[in-house]
Protein 1
Amino acid sequence: MRATINDVAQATGVHISTVSRTFSAPHLVNEETRNRVLEVAERLGYRPNRAARALITGKTYTIGLIVADIANPFFAPMIKAAESQARMRDYHILVAETDEDPAVEEELVRAFAKQVDGVQLCSPRMSNELIEKVSHDIPIVLINRMVSDLPCVLMDVASGARSAMEHLIGLGHRKIALLGGPRSSWTSREIRKSATAAARGTDVELTVVSPNPPTVDGGLGLAEQVAGSGVTAVLTHNDLMAVGLMEGLGSLDVCVPDDISVVGFDDIEMAQWVRPKLTTVANPTSSAARTAVDMLLQLGDDRRATAQVTLRTELIVRDSTGPVPSGSRGDG
Amino acid sequence: MRATINDVAQATGVHISTVSRTFSAPHLVNEETRNRVLEVAERLGYRPNRAARALITGKTYTIGLIVADIANPFFAPMIKAAESQARMRDYHILVAETDEDPAVEEELVRAFAKQVDGVQLCSPRMSNELIEKVSHDIPIVLINRMVSDLPCVLMDVASGARSAMEHLIGLGHRKIALLGGPRSSWTSREIRKSATAAARGTDVELTVVSPNPPTVDGGLGLAEQVAGSGVTAVLTHNDLMAVGLMEGLGSLDVCVPDDISVVGFDDIEMAQWVRPKLTTVANPTSSAARTAVDMLLQLGDDRRATAQVTLRTELIVRDSTGPVPSGSRGDG
DNA sequence: GACGCGTCTACAAGGGTTTGCATTAATAAC
DNA sequence: GTTATTAATGCAAACCCTTGTAGACGCGTC
């Protein structure tokens, strides 16, 4: 059995409260005593029992991280970044996944409520009302979602979408499709708004196809429709869909970028390993997760601290976009 | 503040022990009382405080999952599978990552010791002695590693490597390279042993290049050496290296599979999105993680239950392997 | 009417910590 | 030499729950 604070106290010949203070408030204990305690603790392999500490302080030194899909290359780096940031602060990360199901999401938040110090909700699918409601039970930081004055970390996808549109328009494209993501995705709505705005007042014809599953298969399944639609460029909700789309277009003998240009979103690692390398809008996912962890820890008890951070996105031009095919030039 | 067992007891007009038993041993509580308690608990939104329960029962209902790299497409599906399996059992998953550093690994296990009910160590890099030692402090299930009689889940990479070799030999290849993984990787050693055994007694010349970082860049960095070595086929430690290698060969104008065949290991999702689609040995990572969770939960207190499970691997033939180039036929 | 038995509920200890307060000892101020 | 003042430590309650044991109650049996 692992050593407890009692064992250490006994072996050192002091009261347990002195041992406790040696760790939680070192300045209150005499240096000599402190050293003796530390030495004994070291020798006995003593570690404070977090459950006991949590019981009394109400702090668990654990953060809950809720994502739609743990293995998704969009979320995985967020978990990674959050874990590393949390560990720096002596915190742990409890992960759970919702499968894009708002009900599961809610249940998870509630289940976490008494068990973690705060919850990081990544691209949540719950309704605003529900998020608002559960935020009374436990400190929450949102990523990729804005709900009233709850703390959140956003990525500036609007500006990313605008850059992407400008890039395509600059290449001469006039018939462009936007393949949206899930209905309840805040990001998807933002991209749509921004892309639509970028097309407005120009001679660009923007076709919005939405909602779609944000997966490789989702993109794959749209290839035929895209190929038959006469568009010369496509902006997808994320890189996975772009990869699937390119795959599907390939098997229809539609060449990317010669026939159709494709722009993704996120800049997941795979974007540079597919052929053609994917032009995409880089999202600062890791940095968002780190920021969210810090916000959660600073939040303390005033759980409505109104920090709302927006991080920059950046268009990464690779090989999946090119000039509009000559046959299509000017016929939009 | 969230409702406690006291609030529920008071509101129902029974003793807290009755409330407790309503949840932990319902058959000991009169049905009518039980229903009243449940109703009040529901109304008050009561959830047992896990910390308090952990303090007394010693069970945290949490499993620690330690991997080298959370975002790695080899490990991410394992985390995913473990989380889903754990949730089915009303358990949670605490993740942490080691960056392939044995010291971090050890520290993490120790930090988890009193905080989780068991630890799942995925492809650990610690020494056998150390694993053996920490296994006294906390129940451990190993994945991809065998240490004395500790419970573990293995993937039959040896048979996978043999299949891969046979596949290549069947295609006429006689000069084959094996790009190994990290030095401390059990998997890497197993593959090497098996591949060497498959080559023995034949006219196949197997060149082992090891150790290497098990990453895309690791593979990329070996491209030149491979291209200049005269081998016609390569077996890599994992798919990431294979992807990197193919990338590197591509920029050296070496064509896969026409000039050189490549076989990966793991069958990560990306394997089917790269071009050419990667021939690889599929590892049952998800199933391994699920099995490990179940083993951990069944382990109970006899932490040396000697279950050692081996899961089957399977060679998936795609487009990165082909017949030996005619110029090379028979000159091995 | 005393007793035993089974069913249910109440009581209270205990798990490992933190922390406000009391106590002690040592030092400083007068 | 007495009294404040400070520093260091001890004491004990509290955190929320589980669980072994004892008690209350109703019923049937002799």
Protein 2
Amino acid sequence: MKLATWNVNSLRVRLAHLSDWLNATRVDLLALQELKLTDDKFPKAELEALGYHCYFSGQPTYNGVAILSRMDSIGAALEVSCGNPLFEDEQKRLIRARFEGLDFISAYFPNGQALDSDKYTYKLRWIDALHDHLQQLRESPACKALVLAGDFNIAPEDIDTHDPAKWAGQILCSAAERERFQRLVALGLVDSFRAFEQAPKSFSWWDYRELGFRRNAGLRIDHILVDERLRSTLSGSLIDKGPRKLEKPSDHAPVVTELAWPA
DNA sequence: ATGGCCATAGTGTATGGA
């Protein structure tokens, strides 16, 4: 089974890229972020025609998350919930879909903007509330296994940045953010990309400016954390740079993790 | 050269992204 996450930076603009990518990869579950459209504009019919069930939570202009599940493999969700019951939030950043034996979450973590910004305070509070929510969820008997996929807006370690000196202590790399990433892992999750040997300078986001992609001046901020109860089934993980090379790309590349599961 | 790009809303130019 292939799990994936992709910040598409406007689903309206990226629909053709997404459709081509789904046809090429046929991933089983996909977490999408930054839809930047309202639910009435979600291209449900187009994606269903490709063979995917769609669950989504959008708003005008900003944010917006979705989960796609392949009809002919994992099938439809048993239940879906949007947002965090422990955190009032007008911003649409979280959606969870339950499947047989697996709770799959698409998360769009706040960016934070700058360490002295109110947005940074919001980011830390948002993550703390997510932690508490996931702790409760993961310990509930109905949750057999948890996968947290999305744009975390956190580069967990220096090797996840193209220039550790430049990024030291900066937004996305601050000690408080990295500590929170580790707290999420400590819930009993595995950073699936790092469960495998990877090429140095592997990133999932590159700035549109400064020829970021051509210079590979990027960050690894998109992650798929897999329940350690599924650790033995992990069979691979990669960042697919293909879509980032197209005309008018998203600034993020999709991340894919493969499981030999269900057995 | 400490900024460069892109999407949105919407028709000027601001905000947000990371």
